[in-house]
Design brief:
alpha+beta, HSP40/DNAj peptide-binding domain, three-stranded mixed β-sheet, 10 helices, binds zinc ion
């Protein structure tokens, strides 16, 4: 069941590569997780348009997809086998997107000047407890790594690297253009050597001169406690390598499955604990869940429905280092059915009962009587 990548990007089947790219940039900018922390919908959209662009943004993949031959599992060989589905293609674009946020240029161009590879994005799904307590994870993904045979140079050996004859090693060339107003001269990057000043005469066979190879990674990481859904954690140097350069980052896009027991509010936790009518009246031990397991707490006599207990420091120890509190709300549950003996005991109980033990009921009855005091 192939997804409709064209409609995900909101473009026509006949869209040009430029139209696809610009549609993708617009959406990626719109849904980038850094702009929408804690928004699973945006995170999902972001993932979806990355996936769509990894296929449609690549001429080869797009052709296969159009012919129904595209295999998502092995998409172009970059596919993340663990549900992530992020592809390595297009991540330079993410930097452009970032730099356009940051007021232009800076990050993108400096990264290129430093010759750092593109980032790899990785969707990391955590259970509520994993996120709240921190955990160890083994990340499986594929990245571009420096070729071990040529050490990332792309050359068979040292003598295969020569000074670029086109620019004489400067990396720059003059472009002369004839215009209506005469000649204009522009200095630009040498296209023969991409500005490096060096050319490879005899490329490395292992990587076909690219300097990088695909590498399957098994990376163990320590996930700190307290990460929120939608947060992005960059791990430096674990992304894609580039020829003669360094590895970019591995960006963990954190997704946290909600808990059916705990509700998180910042670093505080909330939990509702149902207790029996008898326990509420007589007092007694209740089991309360916490991040370190269940603990027993003694409820006092005559605990009211809705009473909230606060346990300081039993919340989440957030990434900022301080721990929140655990708030426990007592929910008195009336039995769905009772035995004959219980019924008898309850009738006895009711006979012994007095309105003076019920300040809320007493106040309520007085207020209601007040409503109708002038009626005849
Ligand atoms: Zn090589
Ligand atoms: Zn050159």
């Amino acid at each position: 069941m192939a997804k409709d990548y064209y409609s995900i990007l909101g473009v026509d089947k006949t869209a040009s590569a430029d139209q696809i790219k610009s549609a993708y940039r617009k959406l990626a900018k719109q849904y980038h997780p850094d702009l929408h922390p804690n928004d699973p919908v945006s995170a999902e959209k972001f993932k979806e348009c990355n996936e769509a662009y990894s296929v449609l943004g690549d001429e080869d993949n797009r052709r296969k997809y159009d012919n129904g031959e595209y295999d998502m599992q092995n998409g172009g060989g970059y596919g993340n086998p663990f549900g992530g589905g992020f592809s390595a293609s297009g991540f330079d674009d993410i930097f452009d997107i970032f730099s356009s946020f940051m007021g232009g240029g800076g990050r993108s161009s400096s990264r290129h000047a430093e010759n750092v590879g593109s980032d790899v994005n990785y969707n990391l799904d955590l259970t509520f407890m994993e996120a709240a307590r921190g955990c160890k994870k083994t990340l499986k993904f594929t990245r571009k790594d420096a070729c071990p045979d040529c050490k990332g140079t792309g050359a068979k050996d040292a003598s295969s690297v020569q000074t670029c004859p086109h620019c004489k090693g400067t990396g720059q060339v003059k472009y002369v253009q004839n215009t209506l107003f005469g000649q204009s001269v522009r200095i630009g990057t040498c296209e023969k050597c991409n500005g490096t000043g060096k050319v490879v005469t005899n490329p490395c066979k292992t990587c076909n001169g690219k300097g990088v190879i695909s590498k399957a990674m098994n990376l163990s990481v320590e996930i700190p406690a307290g990460l929120q859904d939608g947060s992005v954690v960059p791990i430096s140097g674990q992304g894609n390598a580039t020829q003669n350069g360094r590895n970019g980052n591995l960006n963990l896009i954190i997704r946290v499955r909600p808990s059916k027991v705990f509700v998180r509010e910042g670093n505080n936790l909330r939990v509702v604990v149902p207790v029996s009518f008898a326990t509420a009246v007589l007092g007694g031990e209740v089991e309360i869940p916490s991040l370190n397991g269940v603990f027993v707490h003694k409820l006092p006599e005559n605990t009211q429905n809705g009473d909230t207990l606060r346990f300081r420091g039993k919340g989440i120890r957030g990434v900022q280092g301080y721990a929140g509190d655990l708030f426990v709300t007592i929910n008195v549950e009336v039995p769905k059915s009772i035995s004959r003996a219980q019924r008898k005991a309850m009738a006895e109980f009711e006979r012994e009962d007095s309105i003076k033990n019920y300040p809320k009921r007493k106040a309520y009855m007085d207020e209601v009587a007040e409503l109708y005091k002038d009626d005849k």
